[in-house]
Amino acid sequence: MATAKVARVSFGSQLKKSCLLSPQRSFSALKSATRTAPSTSKASTTSVQASATTSSSVSRKSATKNEKKTKKVLPAPDNTEAQLKQIEGMMNMANTSNLFPTMDMWGTKLMTLDVEIPRDASLRMLFTNPGAFWYAKQHNFSNWLKNTFSMYTIAKARAFTGVNCDFRFSHLFLPRTWRQLGNVASHSSTSWLAPMRRTAMENYLAISRAIADKDEATLKTLTTADYATKVNKIVRTRKPGQVWQWNVLIFRPLAKPPGATVVSIRSGEIYVAKDPPKRGNRLVIHALVKFETTQELKMFTKQGQPVETQSAKPHLVVEYLVLEKVGWYDNTWQVRDQIYK
To answer: Which of 11, 22, 175, 194 is deepest in the core (most CB within 10 A)?
Structure first.
C-alpha cells in the first residue's frame, strides 16, 4: 500500500512539472502518462468489478429464492369477490324492483332443485348386499331431512295449495305437526299435500291427453317452457294423418289421488325483494311426484285402421315428474322435468 501511494504521488508531480514547464507538451505528456499508468489501479478496478459481479449474482440468487418462497406462501385465490359481486347484484335487483312494476325481476330461469328418488332398502338387501343397504338408508334419511325442512319452510310461509295452514312456531311441539312435516308420501286426505296431489294427477292426465290430441295450448299452460319444447318435439314428429287414442284404465279409490305420490319436495325463498310480492309468497317449490297408472295408447291410420304397437295393450307406467309452483304467480302446478330411476 505504501509503494502504491508513492507511485501515485510521483506520477502526479511529474505530470504537474511537465504541464508547467511546457504547455505545448501537456497533451503529449498526459497521453504518455495514461499509457504508463500503474498496474495496481487496473488490478484494483478489476477486483472491484469482480466483487460487484459476485455480489450481484448472490443477490439475484437470493431474490429468486425469496420469490419462490413467496409464491409457495401465497394462498390460492378464493371466490369471495365473485360471491360478493353476486350478492351485490341481487341487492341492486331488490332495490330497483319497484322501478319496473311490470317486469318480474325474480322470474329468472332456475335449475331443478335437488329432489331425489328414494332408494330401495328392503331387509332382504341387508343380508344380500349390506353395503348397498346402508348406502340406501343414508340416502333416504338425507332425503327425509330435506323434505321435512322444506315442509317447515312452506308451512311457515303458509304456501300450501288449497290448505288454510295457520302455522306457528309453538306447533312444532305437537306430534301431529311432525306427522305432517315428516310424511310427504302420505295418501291421507287430511295431509297438507293432499290438494297438491289431486292437482298434480289432474294436470298429468290433461298433459297426456294433450299429447295425444296435439293440443299445444294446453301443454303450454301446464308445463314450463323447457319441458314444453321436449313434449312438442314428440307431438310434431308424429306421422301426418296418424291418430292417437290414450286412455287410463285403472284408478285407485278417490280418497287417494289415483297414482300420485310425492316422494321428494324442496323449497327456496327466491323472491328476495325488500317488499313482499303483491300476491302469494316468496317461495319456489319443486315436488317430485311418482305417477303409477295403467295405460293404453292406440294408434290409427288415416283410414281408421289400427296400428299394431306394444303400447296398445294395457301396461303399467311409472313416471317421476318434477312439478313447480312459483309462489308469486297466479298459476297452477307445472311439469318442468322428468327424472328416471
So the answer is: 194
